[in-house]
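>> received
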Amino acid sequence: MKQSGPHQGKSSTMPLTFQHDGQQDHQHLRHLQQQQHRWRIGCVTTVFLCNYDTMKTAMKRPELSDRPNFFTYSLFSQGSTIGLVFSNGHPWQRNRRFTLRQLRDLGMGKTALEDAMQEEARQLVQDFKKHTLKDQPLPLSLGVAVLNIIWTMVADTRHELDDPKAHDFIRLIGMIVDHQQGPVFLFNIFPWLLTMAPKFLKKRLGYYAVKNDLKRVQEAMREFIKQHKATLDPSHPRDLVDNYLIELQQSKDSPQDDSLSEKNLTEVMTELFMAGVDTMASILSWAIKYLAKYPQVQTRLQRDIDAVVPKGGFLFYHERSKLPYLEAFIHEVHRCVSLGPMAIARTASHDTQIEGYTIPKGTVVVPHLECCHKDPKYWDQPHHFHPDHFINPDGSFNAKKEGFAPFSIGTRSCPGESLARVEVFVLLTVLLQNFSFAPPPGLDLTMDKDPEVILINAPKPYRVIITERV
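>> returned
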């Protein structure tokens, strides 16, 4: 697409700026930002949108709102007819509206769920205390805390942070994510393999592994639905599952609307866990890695927190303006990491035009979010870790920074964005209040990303020393 213009204006603050390790792709990203990219990948014609302004315009168009008929997508959506993320048309719209409403009513800005987050934070502090002064990976309890926050909202339940079943469930979700960005991707770009490939080749490419692992998650969701049906009190709904079942019962009087079903609910739950657990655990892990690598940033954040949060106390998300640098730090981690380097693909439902280019019907369109996050039009130092990118000249947090799209953009943006923002803010505030993080002696933490990773820029495994603050 068209090249962005030069950056205008510089921050007048005195920034903390740090060299970002993963620079091997700088020239490639700059090249992408300057061009339209239309590639033939296997049997699929694909256009990559590498410019934020273009992306912002294109992703609002209804003719670019559908998902392509990829094998890895159809595992969830059964031909784009069910679920939240990979469905199309009325089923997608219906489930998205329901989920957004539930996230708003049960979670976003609601004291009850934030209280639950703070309880998870308390439990996490107690668990981290068992791991202080040890050279080791981050405790698995971090992922369980994230899992519990979603469980609380979706199914009104939680696990102990050392529960082996919770650890197994998190590993299972991680395996599905790994499968999806492995060789099974070949079934997306060579769909004829689904009917032509022999069983041994399907097995080698991960076809059966991803289907079986996903089936295990779906079976767990169905069990929760069964339990909720047996104890449902329509006058006192407890969570998202209860509210869905109530709305499903009410919709039976409207035969023209068949977009709600228990099968749909199973997929909505599955996708909420798939989208929420692995990604949030990864961004928290990245954040702790940046804290350990840049102790000056960590010290500044702790000083800010100590000044506004009493020892042993909490700060609610609506009070976040008291900690502008923490918000800037979180956003800069999102920018540098680009956890989802490319948004989930769209497809053109009919021929359309983007900035003078014709996008034929059936073309797969992929927003390249990482290009936006490295575009010098929007970032003073795009290839450095520089939290002041999000600080205004008066020291306040810049909440509407152009060129920033970690949760995608347009009609298909992540429905859980607001919930994720609260979650990361609450957990990081409590962890920084109670602990400091440092690399083991002699170990230089690098921020390089795995070049084989396609879907998620998860951090490479690392070790850290956790020290309790007194």
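>> The first strand starts at residue 18 and ends at 19.
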